[in-house]
Amino acid sequence: MSVAVYDAVLGANSLRQVVSSQYSANGRVIVGRASGGVDPAALYGGQAGPAASFDSADVAGALGFAGVATGLILSSSTITIPFNERANGGTFAGALSHSVISATDGLLIPTQIAASQDSEAVIASLALLFISSNGLVDPITINVNQSLAAQAFNSQFAMGPVYFGGSQVPEAVGWRVNPGIQVEGVSYNGGIYPTALHITGRNPTIEILFEDFASAATFTGQYQAMTSAAVYGRLRTDGGTFAADASLVHLKFSFAAGITNMDTLGGSGLNNGQVSVMLYGKALTFASNSSIP
Question: How many alpha carbons fall within 13 Å on the CB side of residue 268?
């Protein structure tokens, strides 16, 4: 029977408002051949890096437990990625009807937070990398005939303004934040699954998109020092539009220092032209209790 996405349980936290959820085994098959052989003589299971990916509209909640610099390590924890089974002629099946991917150990990292002028919500993308107990045991299991916990809705945000050097960038139409967390999985003693995951580097970036070509002059020269930059997510209010900009309830992603790189500018056909500028920061800061200037 067909299924739909559902809240994921990640240790003591729940990832809510899941827009997409996907598991990838990321396995490699090793081929054995006879001397000079054209066809396989044997096939073996090789290195694998199992992982799950999520898109969620609960940006404040997700980044509240999976930090933009640290992610979230899960050790001997309850990790469940449920799929809600649909009911023929109805909505969803009852208890003890659903499929769940289960694990106990892994590292959850945010990979991108994106907003655009026409999108209904700011979306946080995250990756969950799994850890095996000994390198030989598959770190995940798939269980059927499971019940699902109750869900909840937290909050939703829309694209807010973009600021560079203390001034608002006119006619902004989108932004993408990449925390740039680099992770290395290691295996030992001939194991095929990672038994440890290390954060080996961070290279955060923010891409800003705008249509005011006159403002492109601010970023000419291709490279220039950056003293401050911020992009905002504006909190939606149920039954209305948005919370007041002065309220301390909005999202803010910012750099205090870095460098800019003019990426692209141009147009096509009857569409408005667009400018893309990449901001490379030394440290990415996130707040979910910010006002908007």
Answer: 2
